[in-house]
């Protein structure tokens, strides 16, 4: 009947109004979304896909980057097809990035000048489409200058901290396995909680290794149900290269429940998120498993054996303790949830989310100051309690600014690079922010509540010569 039809229209209109109020970002028009990035980045294709997976993010990049099915670096297209299997860092880095703009990844992942000299062998043509990123890498700019100085400094720093990073990570992994089995043997959920924290610390330390060339320690990360292969995309290729922007997949993954960009938000997401955020953290690991299972069998998604690694732990629990499948599964679930909460607390309070840190939507620097390295410093602050301790740096995402600038370097080397880093910062008049853990934690909650963008751009550079 007509009245029934009108009722349905009214109900649908009411539902749509409610959804717009709850999720305003997801119901903006295309032109409104394109205005969200004050850096001028086109709103990413598929950014609002409900799955927020690494593979979907790559699909969106392929649609936006103008790489024409090849690999784009700056304004040139290259065909690395014959180089994939012999790439020193492992073939996945190139397999995953075919069809996208890898400018920032190429610059940040290669300190030696040798890879740049090899590019001419694989050159195909100039790109037809302008780059969808504002960041520059001028030879006399901040990042290129710093990279040259760091490359020279690396020949003088000790190498034993690299081995120490391996020992620490291995010890954390063994601690996780031992405490997980012991928790079942003692039927102690307190020991299980310690196992969960050991798992989280293992994963954070293992993140040091999935940034590097292929190695077995990067697979420690997969014991959380999060996959190192996917995190090479969502973390290394997305968050690390474009932190706090519309292109940062880790920002998108938290939405709509955790909204860090300074856009329109309702009361629930501004303030109640302070209360329910630990619940969101508790499902970080399990949601990764669910996302993986939902993608199995879909086109372009490969089944990789590390998916099975987490399940070896409850199996070991049963074999060693002879306890039932039900009890071992329950304890394992408890360990996973505790580990997930710890991982979320450490990760989201590591220094990116603070009102004084740049988030897309805030007033951006002028174009002539859009050096990629300077942008990295605008989007992060370090914690003074963490800096200086190899162990704390490794298990707390420490030395965050230097790690963002040089992600493939082992965390153990970063403390030796501060003199050069601070010298170049002073030379260019840019700042390295050092804060307390308490301040970064408080700042994270303030950023969730923030709706008004910063009206002033980050601190301007000085006018002095930038020659070394």
UniProtKB/TrEMBL annotation:
Keywords: Heme, Iron, Membrane, Metal-binding, Transmembrane, Transmembrane helix. InterPro entries: Cyt_B5-like_heme/steroid-bd, Cyt_B5-like_heme/steroid_sf, Cyt_B5_heme-BS, Cytochrome_b5-related, FA_desaturase_dom. Residues 446-468 are annotated as: Disordered. It comes from the Eukaryota. GO terms for biological process: lipid metabolic process. The keyword Cell membrane does not apply. One of its GO terms (molecular function) is heme binding. The chain crosses the membrane at residues 167-186, 192-210, 271-291, 303-320, 332-350. Residues 41-128 form the Cytochrome b5 heme-binding domain. PANTHER family: CYTOCHROME B5-RELATED PROTEIN-RELATED (PTHR16740). May play a role in muscle cell metabolism. Belongs to the cytochrome b5 family. This is Cytochrome b5-related protein. It comes from Exocentrus adspersus.
């Amino acid at each position: 009947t007509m009245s029934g039809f009108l009722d349905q229209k009214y109900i649908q209109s009411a539902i749509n109004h409610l959804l717009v109020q709850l999720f305003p970002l997801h119901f903006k028009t295309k032109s409104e979304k394109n205005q969200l990035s004050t850096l001028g980045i086109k709103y990413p294709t598929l950014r609002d896909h409900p799955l927020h997976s690494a593979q979907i993010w790559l699909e969106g990049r392929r649609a936006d980057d103008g790489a024409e099915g090849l690999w784009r670096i700056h304004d040139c297209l290259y065909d690395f097809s014959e180089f994939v299997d012999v790439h020193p860092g492992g073939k996945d880095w190139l397999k995953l990035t075919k069809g996208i703009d890898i400018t920032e990844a190429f610059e940040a992942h290669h300190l030696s000048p040798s890879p740049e000299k090899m590019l001419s062998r694989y050159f195909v043509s100039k790109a037809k489409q302008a780059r969808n990123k504002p960041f520059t890498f001028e030879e006399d700019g901040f990042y290129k200058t710093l990279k040259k100085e760091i490359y020279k400094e690396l020949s003088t720093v000790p190498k034993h901290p690299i081995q120490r990073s391996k020992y620490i990570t291995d010890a954390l992994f063994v601690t996780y396995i031992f405490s997980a089995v012991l928790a079942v043997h003692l039927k102690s959920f307190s020991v299980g909680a310690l196992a969960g924290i050991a798992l989280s610390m293992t994963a954070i330390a293992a993140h040091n290794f999935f940034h590097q060339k292929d190695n077995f320690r990067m697979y420690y990360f997969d014991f959380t149900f999060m996959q190192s292969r996917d995190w090479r995309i969502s973390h290394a290729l997305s968050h690390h290269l474009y932190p706090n922007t519309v292109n940062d997949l880790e920002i998108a993954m938290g939405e709509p429940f955790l909204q860090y960009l300074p856009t329109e938000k309702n009361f629930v997401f501004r303030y109640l998120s302070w209360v329910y955020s630990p619940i969101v953290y508790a499902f970080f690991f399990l949601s990764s498993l669910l996302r993986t299972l939902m993608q199995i069998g879909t086109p372009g998604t490969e089944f990789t054996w590390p998916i099975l690694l987490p399940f070896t732990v409850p199996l070991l629990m049963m074999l060693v303790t002879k306890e039932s499948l039900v009890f071992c599964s329950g304890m394992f679930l408890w360990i996973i949830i505790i580990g997930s909460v710890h991982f979320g607390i450490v990760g989201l309070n590591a220094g990116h989310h603070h009102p004084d840190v740049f988030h897309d939507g805030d007033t951006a620097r002028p174009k002539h100051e859009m050096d990629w390295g300077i942008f990295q410093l605008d989007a992060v602050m370090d914690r003074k309690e963490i800096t200086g301790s190899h162990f704390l740096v490794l298990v707390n995402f420490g030395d965050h600014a230097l790690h963002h600038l040089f992600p493939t370097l082992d965390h153990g080397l970063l403390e030796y690079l501060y003199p050069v880093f601070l010298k170049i910062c002073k030379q260019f008049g840019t700042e390295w922010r050092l804060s307390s853990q308490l301040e970064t934690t408080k700042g994270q909650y303030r950023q969730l509540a923030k709706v008004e963008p910063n009206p002033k751009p980050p601190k301007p550079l000085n006018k002095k010569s930038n020659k070394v």
